[in-house]
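Project channel, design review

CF: Before we commit to the Anaerotruncus massiliensis constructs, I'd like one complete example in the thread so the newer folks can see what an input/output pair looks like. Taking DUF2029 domain-containing protein.
RD: sounds good, go ahead.
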Amino acid sequence: MDEKRLGASFCPSRGQIRWFLTVLVAFAALVRLMVAYITVHYFDLSFYVDWSTGVANDFFGAYNNIGNLDYPPLFLFPLFLTGKLLGIGAVRAFDPYMMLALKGWQVLFDLACIPLLYRVLRREGQLVGLAGAAIWAVNPAGILNSSYWGQTDSIMIFLVVLAFLLLEEGRPVWSGAVMALACLMKFQSLYFAPVYAVALLTSYPPRRIFQTVAAGAGAVLAVFLPFMARSGWALPLEIYFGGFGQYQGASLNAFNFYSSAGLNYKHFSTKILGLIQADHLSTLLLAAALALLVAVWFTATEKSVWLMGFLFMQTVFMFTTRMHERYQIPVLVMALIAAARHRSRGMFASFGALAVMVFLNQFLVLQQIFAADKQAGWIAHYDAVVVALSHVNLLLYFATAWVALRVCYRRGHYGFARSFRAMLPERWRGSPPGPNPQRGAP
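CF: and here is what came back for DUF2029 domain-containing protein:
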């Protein structure tokens, strides 16, 4: 039988899709909960113990009573419930139960990303949506991050992806509120704000833009005001700038440009090749990344928030300071969605290669931290391993950026000025811009 004809003729029903996703999420939950249960450690999780206990005791006064609390206030809501769980004697007395309580929200949102990915990708075909969901269900980098380590990146990924989806589907007001919640949950969500802003400003009329900004501002005020009433009106500045300022390493175990230059855990004021401070170079490269984002958005004939999110976050991770190893994880979901959206095998290969690299980055860091003998095996050469793999990741950056840019321009290009005119009211502009015929079409 012709497999291509069989695949093309198979169209699952809604009931079959629901059952598939249910079983997929159930199996993924079993794996994640098992990993969370048996991997007992308190590296970073000790912060959550202190925070959740303090939040449970005095919710709105948390920032006054918990000295090292540097997360935005939305994270305090799940921490409150975690604190109540930790107050149960049976949970406190058994470490595996503690692990489930401390990692539970991270696991829950990692699982929620599975049906969300199906929702994002189903417009490309039901099977494409199911395949994307299944790939995320077995993504080792995500499982290690949420279930083993207990980091909160899965919560941020879920909210950012949901915000981008709503923006893409023509529901900007709801999208603005969700994007604000993402930034209120985790500081790193702000890295996606430029992509979100460019897409919003070029896709909707002024009235809808104003409504979206108002919805986001309303969400910020609704969450922040009760805490500001107890901790002062400067609380937002203290949280975001204070949290950013406490990490002063050029790189914090990230496989990026600064680690490739031997600056892992070196102060960001360290000069590169004796010429320029790392933080000054970081500022220049961040400005270049923003300029690249705008230029590509206005000239590319094939683009999406997913493809632009991939390009921008990859550039930020590789070329700005203070990056942790896990900050590259959101790149994976952007690459996976962009691969399906743009029918690009190159983008899918990029996702696969980066998934391996992100997994290794987290795995090697954790192994080095938990190793009883720091001079055993490869761990004795950890610094050299970081430098070597950072060079590999740097080469991978240029390869994947080339793939992404080829997707952006495979249908030719628009002139920047003509594309900018397309944003103006119709009576102010001439004929709509079209691709440059000299560049051709695929």
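RD: helpful, thanks. The first strand starts at residue 251 and ends at 252.
CF: DSSP finds 21 helices and four strands in the chain.
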